[in-house]
Amino acid sequence: MQGMRNTAFRLGQWLKSPRPYLMLVGFTLFIGFWYLSVEVWKLPRFRDMPGITVVVKEWLNPNPVFGMSVYTPEYYKHIGVSIWRVTQAFLLATVLGVSVGLLLGWSKTFKEYVFPVFETLRPIPILAWVPLAIVMFIATESAVIYLTFLASFFATALNTMLGVESIEESYIRAAYCLGAKRSQVFRHVIVPGALPFIFTGLQISIGVSWFSLVAAEMVSGQYGLGYVINTSYTMVRYPTIVIGMITLGFVGYVTSAMVRVIGDHLMQWRTRELALGGQ
């Protein structure tokens, strides 16, 4: 109940602030530029792009010209499949990424063995992993989840490691001086101290998961928003491409906001600490 009250209070404060209205202004300017550049000015660079009126009509059409709108079951099936894939990959990346990141930051020996390999693999683009993913995983679904997991794992692990390394040494020494064992220091000092960085990494991770998913679905998916965008391009269904992109952006924004809300709920102690520090 206390967490719900805090969330409601923060929501009220957000609505009273200028942020939501500035956000609306930003969206209005973006949509206005899209409308003017495509349908009014007809700029050369945008001559083949579908205008906003065409996209909205197709999106809200009970009988869509290109076969997909809010009235077609396939639209929601593609969204559901993509969300389920991202959920699996994100949860797996969270468990493994946080665990590896904590060990990288906490154990110098572990870091000396693992970090060089970690830094060698991290810059490799997701598309470069596609052939190996298809070879390693016979099932197409497993290959898509694996490719989605990869980039998310590296973002989570790296931010977790930085979080551990950012903890002041004095806190660890103070815990040892008070008689804490190594396991207790890890549980009560290292993990809570790294949480802000961990949740920052998770917000980055969920975004990375979405664009990795799109790349994976374009190559080896049968359903999903990435599959829709790729097949629509092949079949010259430009309004459907934009519908898929906007849907992807909206769903990605919602999932990122959910991670942020969960992080704020689990780190209420940090909010109080910052408030006391401000006083």
CATH superfamily of the largest domain: MetI-like
What is the CATH third-level topology name of the largest domain?
MetI-like fold
Mean pLDDT: 87
Structural domain tally: 2
Count of DSSP E strands? Answer: 0
CATH class value of the largest domain: Mainly Alpha
Structural class of the secondary elements?
A: mainly alpha
Radius of gyration: 23 Å
Largest sheet: none
What is the CATH-assigned architecture of the largest domain?
Orthogonal Bundle
Beta-strand proportion? under 5%
Tell me the number of helical segments per DSSP (H or I, 4 or more residues long). 12
How many angstroms does the end-to-end distance come to? 26 Å
Shape: globular
Assign a percent range to the helix content: over 70%
H/E topology pattern: HHHHHHHHHHHH
Give me a quick take on this structure:
With 279 residues, this protein is mainly α. Helices cover 80% and strands 0% of the residues.
3D architecture notes:
- With 279 residues, this protein is mostly helical.
- The protein has two domains: 1-49; 51-278, MetI-like fold (Orthogonal Bundle).
- 80% of the residues lie in helices and 0% in strands.
- The chain has twelve helices and no strands.
- The protein has helices at residues 2-16, 19-40, 52-59, 73-106, 108-121, 130-136, 140-165, 169-177, 182-220, 225-234, 238-266, 268-278.
- It is globular.
- It starts with a helix and ends with a helix.
- The model has no long low-confidence stretch (mean pLDDT 87).
Blueprint (SSEs and pairs):
Blueprint lengths: L1 H15 L2 H22 L11 H8 L13 H34 L1 H14 L8 H7 L3 H26 L3 H9 L4 H39 L4 H10 L3 H29 L1 H11 L1
Helix pairs in contact: 3-11, 4-5, 4-7, 4-9, 4-10, 6-7, 7-9, 8-9, 9-10, 9-11, 10-11
